[in-house]
């Protein structure tokens, strides 16, 4: 079945342009013009990807993105921000809100399609599983047993180190800010600050040995698990 894309933009000309090009490229396309409509749509129908304008009336794109990423049932829907604002601060703000990529207007439909395809390829897929484990090359993560093994050797990790590793390994290729990682692993029984994420990453890499290079630093943004 064709992948379903929801396009959210208050400019009718943009909606029609994207509907034409995305449909031509094999996508199923739905369109809405407001943030409220987008949230209501996703409550009923889960799209495979959302193209979301930043500058929407009333409920803006950043608010829509944050709300979708804060709910378990919608947080894994890839979001590509589409906006006339392309300054670095806006890019960082969009990524920190949970967007997976960012395309500035005016844009080339071909470039947008390429970005969308790349984001969909990186979207979380069911990893190769063995008794519920996430298997990534020489690394095996057992969420239920809270164990990590490199080859056949057990690696002793703290609770926070384990949660960071499991979170990143489940989404190879995805780049996450420190705040996104913090939100994913935060619990009531321990304290983590955004900068202490760096400390946990350093310790995690050291304990994993040469396999620790699978956790990559993305300068100016955060971290990702190396894509297979």
Structure description:
The two termini are 25 Å apart. The longest helix has 14 residues, at 109-122. With 228 residues, this protein is an alpha/beta fold. α2 runs parallel beside α3 and α6 (159-169) crosses α7. It is elongated. The strands form 3 sheets. A 5-stranded parallel sheet has the order 2-1-3-4-5, with helices on both faces. It has helices spanning 12-24, 35-44, 61-69, 88-96, 109-122, 159-169, 178-185, 196-208; strands at residues 4-8, 28-32, 49-53, 79-83, 101-104, 129-130, 133-136, 139-142, 147-150, 153-155, 176-177, 215-218, 222-225. β3 (49-53), α3 and β4 form a beta-alpha-beta unit. The model is unreliable at 125-130 (pLDDT under 50). The chain has 2 domains: 4-122, Response regulator (Rossmann fold, 3-Layer(aba) Sandwich); 129-225, Arc Repressor Mutant, subunit A, CATH 1.10.10.10. The protein is 38% helix and 22% strand. It contains 8 helices and 13 strands.
The class by helix and strand makeup works out as alpha/beta
Count structural domains. Answer: 2
The percent of residues in helical segments reads: 25-40%
Note the overall shape.
Answer: elongated
Strand order of the largest sheet: 2-1-3-4-5
Provide the residue-averaged pLDDT. Answer: 84
Hey, roughly how much beta strand do the residues contain? 15-25%
Distance between the termini: 25 Å
Record field, number of beta strands: 13
CATH architecture of the largest domain: 3-Layer(aba) Sandwich
């Amino acid at each position: 079945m064709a992948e379903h894309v929801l396009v959210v933009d208050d400019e009718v000309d943009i909606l029609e342009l994207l509907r034409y090009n995305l449909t031509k490229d094999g996508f199923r396309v739905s369109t809405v013009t407001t943030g409220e409509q987008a949230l209501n749509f996703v409550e009923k129908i889960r799209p495979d990807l959302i193209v979301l304008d930043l500058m929407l009336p009333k409920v803006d794109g950043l608010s829509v993105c944050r709300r979708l990423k804060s709910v378990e049932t919608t947080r894994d829907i890839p979001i590509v921000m589409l906006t006339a604002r392309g300054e670095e601060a806006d890019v960082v703000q969009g990524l920190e809100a949970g967007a997976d990529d960012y395309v500035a207007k005016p844009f080339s439909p071909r470039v947008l399609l390429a970005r969308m395809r790349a984001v969909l390829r990186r979207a979380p897929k069911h990893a190769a599983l063995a008794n519920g484990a996430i298997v990534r090359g020489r690394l095996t993560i057992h969420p239920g047993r809270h164990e990590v093994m490199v080859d056949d050797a057990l690696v002793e990790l703290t609770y926070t180190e384990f949660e960071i590793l499991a979170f990143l390994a489940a989404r190879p290729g995805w780049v996450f800010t420190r705040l996104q990682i913090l939100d994913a692993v935060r619990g009531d029984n321990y304290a983590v600050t955004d900068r202490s994420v760096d400390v946990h990453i350093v310790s995690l890499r050291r304990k994993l040995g040469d396999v620790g290079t699978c956790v990559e630093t993305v300068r100016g943004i955060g971290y990702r698990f190396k894509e297979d």
